Amino acid sequence: MTALLEVRHATRRFAGLVAVHDVSFTLEAGEILGLIGPNGAGKTTLISLVSGTLAPSEGEVLFQGETITKIPAYRRARLGIGRTFQIMRPFPGLSVLDNVAVGALFGRGGGQPKLAMAREQARACLDFVGLGRFVDQRADELGGPGRKRLELAKALAMQPKVLLCDEVMAGLNHVEIEEVIDVIRKVRDQGISVLVIEHVIKAIKSLSDRLLVLHHGEKIADGVPAEVLENATVVEAYLGKRRT
Ligand SMILES: Nc1ncnc2c1ncn2[C@@H]1O[C@H](COP(=O)(O)OP(=O)(O)O)[C@@H](O)[C@H]1O
Ligand SMILES: [Mg+2]
């Protein structure tokens, strides 16, 4: 069976620095794939290669069995690749509703061309992520946790087949993390495959079907979460020392 998404031998260099080195992985339909690794490991760079925000120096990205390596980001979004950004960039002067309506206007299949319909779609996504009460506020009036949810709602309004989440739980408290975990599970239950970058190990362990670990741009583990987290190389990468 063809994977929904496949990255083959992807490398990305920035001047002298190799941010991602020869990384291959697949994301299957209906799967939640966790992606972890220390700061600077190349996680954000890797999902940027998938969303098209960055081009790989080498390697290929395939979606539904076809190469998309040369396809620009806005067209990948139309194909069904949605993402959130670690550095959140809401349109500050627009309402929460219209921030998400923008996602609906430019989403899968060319999006929802009518503004009124896009707003309807946006409202449903905001309810889905628990921001229904804030639709009329300006986006810059939302606090950190609200902005994380706004990122999710924007990406969901594009009606993606694959959702790439870059640290949507960072800075949240335990209760908020549990709520976001529930949202991501509901997303998967709608048939959307999810790739989640996350630092909170407990959260990623309970959420992921499979776990991928990056370290210095290289994939050092890929497998069942409980086993991967016991892996000596992974423990060493996180603790920065060899276990005795
Ligand atoms: N646009 C860029 N230009 C130069 N270096 C970058 C750029 N983006 C990321 N890097 C570098 O690539 C490495 C991986 O970064 P990143 O993918 O953001 O890691 P992570 O998300 O795992 O923390 C880091 O050393 C970072 O400084
Ligand atoms: Mg990052």
Reported by name, the CATH topology is Rossmann fold
The rounded Rg comes to 18 Å
| Count of discrete structural domains | 1
N-to-C span: 42 Å
The hetero compounds bound to this protein are: adenosine-5'-diphosphate, magnesium ion
Mean residue pLDDT: 93
Structural class: alpha/beta
Under the CATH scheme, the architecture is 3-Layer(aba) Sandwich
Main β sheet profile: 6 strands, mixed
Strand order of the largest sheet: 6-7-8-3-9-10
- Provide the CATH superfamily: P-loop containing nucleotide triphosphate hydrolases
Oligomerization state:
single chain
Query: Proportion of β residues?
Result: 15-25%
User: What portion of residues is helical?
Assistant: 25-40%
The low-confidence parts are: none
Number of helices: 9
Name the shape in a single word: globular
- Counted beta strands: 10
Element-level helix/strand string: EEEHEEHEHHHEHEHEEHH
- The CATH C-level name is Alpha Beta
List keywords for this structure.
single chain; 244 residues; alpha/beta; Rossmann fold; six-stranded mixed sheet; four-stranded antiparallel sheet; 9 helices; 37% helix; binds adenosine-5'-diphosphate; binds magnesium ion
